[in-house]
Design goal:
Layout: H1 8-19, H2 27-31, H3 34-54, H4 57-80, H5 86-100, H6 102-105, H7 114-131, H8 147-159, H9 168-188, H10 191-211, H11 216-239, H12 250-265
Length: about 270
């Protein structure tokens, strides 16, 4: 009778143990810390989002594996330090999910719709913050989030306690105000003040997106992809004449850009 192969997750964890072995492991993996691995964890999360955006599900499978490896990596380092292990990580999220879904796992009656369930979720999270002595409304909004996403989350959290404009009209008025202030600082020529005003402008745009029910990070990711796609069209059109963008000019490239927009509309 042959031994059954290990379950995939057990195999992955065993691989991580070998990679981190101080004698026989991989020198690069051995020298890593939570801080040095954190940027890779963020990068893998972005690559998951990118695969979803492109609808590439073969790639998504691969990228989810890379992201899972990041979790296993952090958990292994924590286990080596006597902090916690992978099972504790899995147990913690299982406990949290059950706690935050009393209408599914507890005695609380199911809510009528997704919106009311989401509101209940936020109430439970608020109670958890209180239990952890995080009494400020914004205390647990992660600093490590992309700045645009964090801006939207900060305004969303503040809006829950009434600190919000009644409608998008007031946000547009604030947007006009910030644009005017930026123009003043551009005229004054102060780099630091310009930076400050650009930040304020982006923050208001993130707030506007949140008011419209749009994730600003997703919206900007889509615009980035659109820019790359349309600029590639410009390059391809110029290449037909054996030229590159630096051999063109703004007027021609702008016309080709508009051609790319027309082509996208079909």
């Amino acid at each position: 009778m042959t031994d059954m192969p290990p379950a995939p997750l057990d195999r992955l964890r065993a691989i991580m143990v070998r990679l981190r072995d101080p004698v026989t492991g991989c020198p690069w993996d051995v020298e890593q810390t939570f801080s040095t691995i954190a940027p890779y964890t963020l990068e893998e999360a972005y690559e998951v989002a990118d695969a979803i955006e492109r609808g590439d599900f073969d790639e998504l499978k691969s990228e989810l594996g890379d992201l899972l490896f990041q979790v296993v990596f952090h958990a292994r380092m924590a286990e080596e330090a006597g902090l916690f292990d992978f099972d504790a990580v899995a147990g913690a999220i299982a406990d949290k999910l059950e706690r935050r879904h009393p209408h599914v796992f507890g005695d609380e009656a199911a809510k009528a719709d997704a919106a009311s369930q989401k509101a209940r979720w936020e109430d439970i999270k608020a109670a958890e913050r209180t239990a952890k002595a995080q009494h400020g409304v914004l205390d647990d909004v992660p600093v490590g989030l992309p700045a645009l996403a964090r801006a939207a989350k900060l305004t969303k959290r503040a809006a829950r306690v009434g600190f919000d404009w009644p409608s998008t009209a007031e946000v547009f008025a604030k947007l006009d105000e910030e644009v005017a202030e930026l123009k003043v600082e551009i005229a004054a020529g102060s780099p630091e003040r310009m930076k400050d005003e650009v930040g304020d402008l982006l923050f208001v745009v993130a707030n506007l997106a949140r008011k419209l029910g749009i994730e600003p990070e997703d919206a900007l990711r889509g615009s980035n992809a659109k820019f790359v796609r349309r600029f590639a069209f410009i390059e391809a059109e110029l290449a037909k004449d054996g030229r590159t963008p630096d051999q063109s000019d703004l007027t021609e490239m702008d016309a080709l850009w508009n051609g790319a927009k027309v082509a996208e509309r079909g």
